[in-house]
Amino acid sequence: MKKSPKIALIGNPNAGKSSLFNSLTGLRQKTGNFPGVTMDKLIGKWKLEAGDDAEILDLPGIYSIYPKSVDEQVVINILANPQHPDYPDLAIVVADASNLKRNLLLFSQVRDLGIPTVLALNMIDVAENQGIVINSVKLARELNVEVAEVNAKKGIGLNGLRLAVNKTLETGFNSNDSLPMEYSSEMVDEIKDTYGDTDDYHALLWLSEHDNLKQFDAQQRIGFDKIQEKYGWNTQNAQSKETMARYAQLNEIVDNCLHEMPVEEEATNSWTDRLDKVFLHRFWGYFVFLGILFIMFQAIFTWATYPMDLIDGGVASLNEFLKSQLPATKLTDLLTDGLIAGIGGVLIFIPQIAFLFLFISLLEETGYMSRVMFIMDKLMRRFGLNGKSVVPLISGVACAVPAIMSTRSIGSWKDRLITIMVTPLMSCSARLPIYTVLIALIVPEKSTLFGIFNLQGVALFAMYLLGFFMALISAWVMKLLLKAKERSYFIMELPSYKGPRFAHVMLTIWNSTKAFVFEAGKIIVAISIVLWVLASYGPGDSIEQAEITVKSQNPTLSGIELDNKIAAQKLENSYAGHFGKFIEPIIKPLGYDWKIGIALITSFAAREVFVGTMSTIYSLGGEVEDESSTVMNRMRAEINPETGKPLYDTALGFSLLIFYAFAMQCMSTLATTYRETKSWKYPAIQFFYMTGLAYVSAFIVYQLLS
Amino acid sequence: MKTIADLKIGERGIIVNFTDEILSLKLLEMGCLPGTQVTMTHIAPFGDPIAVKVSGYILSMRKDEASSIVVA
Fold it and tell me: For residue A619, which of A632, A608, A606, A607 has the smallest C-alpha distance?
């Protein structure tokens, strides 16, 4: 027996795989990435015997080993390749006892791959409520494997499972059953001769799925195509026949081991039925969904402000403390105005991101999310999307990166691509601080709509709706432009409603928030520092010259006023100032000056730096006057040199709002689009169509309003 | 030829065969076998998609997908 065996958890979606994983490993788990793909990989440790820890790998849920979507391909790429670093020494197939036959289909495929397999029979209580009684001893004998009855959610039966795993690890693979379907042994031999010795079932799997398997290069794939041609192999046909043959075998086994008692029809699944009467109703269904969205937005934009204010205040007082304690050098400025201000800009998003993931994981855990897909499918299809696009679009309100990754469950490539392309138009949490600052500048705080709704809140909500409708419109245009060969389908399980598992929800929040802080954090901090340097230094001695010029031009000025003039002149002469001036002609029609130009340029790496950039620019441009004044006050005080009126009037404010709503200003999103589409074409299109849309819309808005 | 798409809510049928070869594999894997009983349980607002009860659980599919499953 190997020192630390690798055990893979395999099973249908909703069979209780993740519950079992959490019960087995507790908090001894970590996330990683599958090599070559950016999908989260959950690994945990499980104590098998004295001193021996098994490594447990939680694989995405699948219905069969023939993948229909990208997230299913991850599993097949591991199981098809015995050389894969994650190839398991043993597989625990988790089966939902209330739906045994369908679950055993996957089990029989995994076992035939020659992987030592243990069957974990879960949800026996659910099955018994439906009058299904399973003789697991008999089942073990018929299937020729160890069978353990478990209750994954409550963590019952884990010792039995441990015994079964230990026994199987000692005896190894012991099924000598031949494959249930017919195939040409001559063909299988040819595959083995060409691609290396393996068992028959692996050879057949390679033949039918070679285009989805990363272990084969282009040359080898052509070789498989030739074998297919030579033997007249039809993958679709062969897989259907195999599935039928497996069911025929399983029918007999299940008939021998399972007894159905008559139960009253009413008693089965009554809760799920009753809830679905409301949640899938033609009126109440949408009403409930909108209500949940409303509560979610309330949480994100109202409740989250309390912890956000705390973080903001904490960072600000840390900055003040450091400034008062450290000597007033350039290095101190870099630390406080550059680095800590940048980190603060990341930390402040944590409460909103956490609330969003709380809601999303609750909706998914309880089984409600698939109901949303069900009632939204017809509506979304009109726009070239799919019921399953709802999840990425909602997640896009937090961050487009995990949202784009969640499109993997969409089976159709065209639907998935369109969803990826339009998801960044949803207003993500990085846009929120920009909206907040700009709306506060142009919408009076005290005004209300119909005397009840705060007009600033209405404006904020309108920005989110704007993003959503623009996503729909763009999707509709892409639907017309994209020619798809394949058709999309919507065959999916509506799982029965379950209570959420607290630990699992908390773990999701923790992992997602952590990923956001570190991924986005790196970029924001780097940009803050670069920006600080660019705004503090200029070509040659132009920065020093600025002071002399100002003093000679204004010989009568002194004190604060003089210092302000000098600081502003310095910024104008810095590298950042030159950049801003350089692009000023392009952005002038939108109403922007070179200072906003600096913010725009820095925002193209990540839009969340806008507010930070503004505060850096305006603090460098007039820092002495009032150290504690906010960005908003500084921006409000900014005067348009041409008109003499405040720079941030309604026209400019709306123009900026629209620009930030539509423009593609996020490196991480572009990188994710590249990873998910495996082509630079799509991130390039995404960048240009979104930024073009932003420019044109902002231009129209500014020209209309000014 | 009667298909699942023709069933009314609460109506039952026995799967006879499939008219769409590509969909049939996915449907088989999801437990829709010839000889299995299906019950129409939900029709989404706007008439599409639909959901049926099959081998002990609820399966949703679009109307055009349902019309590829012949029932008796």
Answer: A632
Do A199 and A234 belong to one domain? yes
Q: CA nearest A372 in B: which residue?
A: B44
- DSSP lists the bridge partners of residue B51 as B42, B60
Where does residue A307 rank: exposed (0-12), middle (13-18), buried (19+ CB within 10 A)? middle
Cβ contacts of A477 within 8 Å, gap of 6 or more:
none
Domain interval for residue B33: 4-71
Q: What is the pLDDT of residues A497-546, one digit of tens each?
A: 888 878 778 877 887 777 767 766 776 677 777 877 887 788 877 777 77
Best to test chain B binding among A378, A488, A497 (most B CBs inside 10 Å):
A378
Amino acid at A216: F
Residue among A98, A236, A375 minimizing CB distance to B22: A236
Q: Which of A260, A295, A317 is the last residue of a domain?
A: A260
Q: Which two tokens stand for residue A216?
A: 């084969």
Does one domain contain both A120 and A216? no
Contact B29 A105 (CB under 8 A): yes
Q: Report pLDDT digits (tens) over A120-158.
A: 999 888 888 888 889 989 999 888 899 999 998 888 888
Mark out chain B residues that contact chain A at CB-CB < 8 A: 21-31, 33, 41-42, 44-49, 51, 55-62, 65
User: How many domains, chain B?
Assistant: 1
Do A152 and A200 belong to one domain? Answer: no
CA A104 from chain centre, in angstroms, equals: 31
Cis peptide leading into A683, omega within 30 of 0? no
Instruction: Calculate Rg over the CA atoms of chain A.
Output: 30
DSSP string over A261-307: ----GGGTTHHHHHHHHHHTSTTHHHHHHHHHHHHHHHIIIIITHHH
pTM: 0.80
- Judging contacts by C-beta atoms under 8 Å, the chain B residues touching residue A491 are 23, 26-27, 30, 59-61, 65
H-assigned helices in A150-282: 158-171, 185-195, 200-209, 218-230, 235-257, 270-279
Q: Could you list the residue range(s) of the whole structural domain that residue A207 is in?
A: 185-260
Domain final residue, candidates A260, A282, A315: A260
Look up the CATH number of the domain holding residue A119.
3.40.50.300
Residues of chain A with pLDDT below 70 are 1-3, 27-40, 50-51, 173-177, 263-269, 301, 345, 445-453, 484-488, 516, 519-520, 523-524, 557-561, 564, 605, 612, 615-632
Residue A66 has phi, psi (to 5 degrees) of -100, 105
Question: How confident is the model at residue B49, as a pLDDT?
Answer: 92
